[in-house]
Amino acid sequence: MPYxxxxxxxxxxxxxxxxxxxxxxxxxxxxxxxxxxxxxxxxKDMDKDVEIYVKxxxxxxxxxxxxxxxxxxxxxxxxxxxxxxxxxxTGNTSAAAAAYAARAGIKAFVLIPEGKIAMGKLAQAVMHxxxxxxxxxxxxxxxxxxxxxAEHAPVTIVNSINPYRLQGQKTAAFEIVEExxxxxxxxxxxVGNAGNITAHWIGYTEMACSGExxxxxxxxxxxxxxxxxxxMISKRPKMVGYQADGSAPFMRGGPVKDPDTVxxxxxxxxxQSWEPAQAVMKESEGWFDECSDEEILAAQxxxxxxxxxxxxxxxxxSLAGAxxxxxxxxxxxxxxxxxTLTGHGLKDPDIAIKQSKVELVPIDAKLEEVRxxxxxxx
Length: 378
Ligand code: F0G
Description:
Blueprint: H1 10-13, E1 36-38, H2 41-46, E2 51-56, H3 66-79, E3 84-88, H4 92-104, E4 107-113, H5 119-127, E5 131-135, H6 139-149, E6 156-157, H7 163-169, H8 171-180, E7 186-190, H9 195-208, E8 238-244, H10 249-252, H11 274-284, E9 287-291, H12 293-307, H13 313-327, E10 336-341, H14 349-355, H15 367-375
Parallel strand pairs: 2-10, 3-4, 3-6, 4-5, 7-8, 7-10, 8-9
Antiparallel strand pairs: 1-2
Helix pairs in contact: 3-4, 3-7, 4-5, 7-9, 8-9, 9-11, 12-13
């Protein structure tokens, strides 16, 4: 059997489709190349003739899709001579920023909302040596502060308003098309700032590009349209963005002042990619919708118990919404659906344990007791 080439991350994999030059020092942790898992049991349980795939982005190096964007943002920050990066975060961006800054040997400053970030994410930021600044405020307050302070200090912002973030994140769409040999009919994502849904649309659009700038969103490629002239796919998916109902500015038609949801990753009231995301919806003929915390947690549990896939609550919003829209026919039978699972379940162990109905009562370490515990649960 021939040896397989070592996978060294998405910048090397998609070098010709990213704004990277030959002598750029690449900062990578082997991100990307995540599994596209076909769900076996949930469509059967639903009694629906649909193919549902989950793109398990929780298997990136720091456990979320942010690594795709962060490898590009940090690579370009270092290339430009920056010695420090900064971000506001609900947790995953700060974990990725901390890790890639450590790898690059630069400093990371992360602003997080006090008490509203999952424990695993905080552990990552601390462990990677970031300067963690907890603010008495939410993500939106932190984002504004980051923008303000970057005008007064030599720091590069690595939130998704940094265009290199979306360039890295678009590669998830490339991977999906390469595996399915087409685009899905529907691509469902959880939406916070709406950077990721925009990045996926850039990716699909570049793959559909036949040499002309065909749409407004397409122009976001900034001339880095590697598929130019190739038209690898003839049809792009409808993009569907789901928000938590307590943090659903796209459903309310404007910013939400005090966003709240159990899915802390998407506890965002003032999305930074508001306009691009609206363009994505118009061009893809997709839609936004919202899910309750109960629906989100139920979908998270269903994925874990029926498919063996553990994602964090925010991630399950994509499947929660997709299941509802499959059941109500908005996503018709016969469709191929991809749901992005943005982050790993281990990011937020507290929520998992809290919603579990399992009682952890110790028994004596004796054969009879263990046997009874097993037979009583067969
Ligand atoms: N899912 C997870 C697990 C996230 O961490 C985020 C965003 C999203 C979905 C939403 O993605 O903002 O591109 O629409 N997390 C950011 C953070 C805000 O700070 O980690 P989006």
